[in-house]
Design a protein that fits this description.
The complex is a heterodimer. Chain A is an alpha+beta fold. Chain A is built from two helices and ten strands. The chains are: A alpha+beta, B mainly beta.
Chain lengths: 183, 291
């Protein structure tokens, strides 16, 4: 009965190998957000996120360790983690989605892309359509996107007793560069 | 048997890589999480916590201790009189900070440095405790008769602050302490006093907590009239400020004063109401985000 196994095994290997060839993983990421506030602007940067794109089915995932957002004001960073994002309870923000446009991403060029998927922040899932720009180079990809996050959508509470006003909408900017995935 | 393999064969093309598998692939096994906010401020109440001020951040701390509550109504339960301490603290980097302060009580100036030796982490590297070293110097400048030399008015403090954040809501700290006074007020007192502090924080809501702190002086070192320092506080944070509303049996706010020279007794109602307010400023140059 061994021959029953051989074919599936081959297919499995080829399938996986070809899927692997079309996997691109992030080698450099930068997420940042900015919010205008009267006393001190709220801004932070995170370079510890990871992402993978599967070019064969245009699926992509992004995983951002929330506590790695770096603020100038360390007390603000503490508040961000402890009071707003509860990052010990919800350590990651994630996006699982699929690029909508049926593009041939093996050709170099700059493409406008959008992706539908689930954005999870603060443990709350939201169906979102995010759009951005994808620059395809030789064995490299660069994804740039800008999107807004409504705090209320993710049940991030703004306390009544905050001297500083905090915007209810935060603008997030992301730059992710990818190279072929290697394990 | 054959059917099973056929089925497997049919399913294979679809099993390639689902999003969940991609999610597993992006997981970074080298991630290390530093536990933040073991305590909210650089003080538990009177004593230092393992926390330091962040890099290029400056904390301005205003502290007040009112007179004893048992002064009664005529003195408005102690509120008619107060001592204060104004302090500035600066983070050289995320582990090392320096600070200075001036207390009205005995017109004391204090200078100190703190270094985070270990940070509690989880993830790829797991560290169960945070450990911070503290070194401080204080000098009284109040005129006395006879006038004492500068050296006689000086004291030194060394502390090993060991803390663990057990859960999101509960942190505990142990603070073995060595205080050296070049000249003790009561001359039978030891010049070098060994003590240990224990302090904790219990979060009530996201922005409020209850803190407690007790400084135990090991026996037979100081006069029996001195009491161990015990304090409780309610902490409230609002954006850039941390307010601590507190009750303590000590008037002074430097280590020598509250650890070795506390004369109030909780049992007799020698309790001082007080507060610490800290405000953080950041001095880092305009960030690279929006050049």
């Amino acid at each position: 009965m061994k021959h029953y196994l051989i074919l599936p095994a081959f297919i499995l290997i080829f399938n996986f190998a070809s899927a692997q060839n079309k996997l691109y993983s992030s080698n450099k990421t930068e997420f940042s957000f900015f919010s205008k506030a009267p006393l001190e602007d709220i801004e932070a940067k995170n370079t510890r996120a990871n992402s993978i794109i599967n070019l064969s089915n245009r699926e992509l995932v992004v995983r951002i360790p929330v506590s790695q957002f770096q603020f100038k004001n360390k007390l603000m960073q503490q508040h961000f983690n402890e009071n707003y994002m509860e990052s010990e309870k919800y350590p990651y923000a994630t996006f699982k989605g699929k690029i909508n446009e049926d593009l041939d991403l093996s050709k170099a060029g700059v493409y406008s892309v959008s992706a539908n998927g689930i954005l999870n922040i603060h443990g709350v899932d939201q169906d979102r359509k995010l759009s951005g720009k994808l620059t395809v180079g030789e064995k490299s990809l660069l994804l740039e996107t800008l999107f807004e996050v409504m705090l209320i959508d993710h049940r991030i509470e703004i306390p009544k007793l905050v001297f500083k006003k905090i915007a209810e909408k935060i603008e997030v900017k992301a730059n992710i560069s990818y190279s072929p995935y290697t394990k | 048997m054959r059917k099973i393999f056929l089925l497997l064969y049919l399913l294979l093309p679809f099993s390639a890589l689902a999003q969940e598998d991609l999610m597993k692939l992006v997981s970074d096994s080298n991630e290390v999480f530093v536990r933040s906010a073991t305590f909210k401020a650089t003080r538990i109440i009177n004593g230092h916590s393992v926390e330091t001020v962040g890099k290029n951040n400056m904390d301005f701390i205003i502290s007040h201790r009112f007179d004893r509550i048992n002064r009664g109504f005529e003195e408005f339960f102690g509120l008619d009189a107060a001592t204060n301490r104004l302090g500035l603290e600066y983070g050289i980097n995320d582990r090392f900070m320096i600070g200075l302060g001036r207390s009205s009580f005995q017109k004391t100036f204090d200078y100190f440095a703190k270094y985070k030796l270990l940070r509690q982490t989880s993830g790829a590297v797991s560290t169960p405790l945070s450990v911070t070293l503290f070194g401080g110097y204080a000098i009284r400048t109040q005129k006395t008769a006879p006038q004492l030399s500068g050296s006689d008015r000086s004291s030194y403090t060394a502390q090993l602050l060991i803390a663990r954040k057990f859960s999101e809501a509960f942190s505990l700290q142990l603070s073995p302490t060595l205080i050296h006074r070049n000249r003790a007020d009561i001359f039978t007192d030891n010049k070098t006093v060994i003590a240990t502090g224990i302090g904790g924080r219990m979060k009530l809501t996201k922005r409020t907590s209850l803190n407690g702190e007790y400084n135990y002086v090991l026996p037979n070192q100081i006069d029996d009239n001195y009491k161990n320092n015990l304090s409780f506080s309610f902490d409230l944070e609002t954006g850039g400020h941390v307010f601590q509303l507190l009750f303590t049996n000590s008037f002074g706010m430097t280590e020598r004063q509250f650890i070795t020279e506390t004369d109030g007794s909780w049992g007799s109602g020698d309790i001082h109401f007080g507060f610490n307010i800290s405000r953080t400023f950041s001095f880092k140059k305009k960030s690279r985000l929006n050049p």
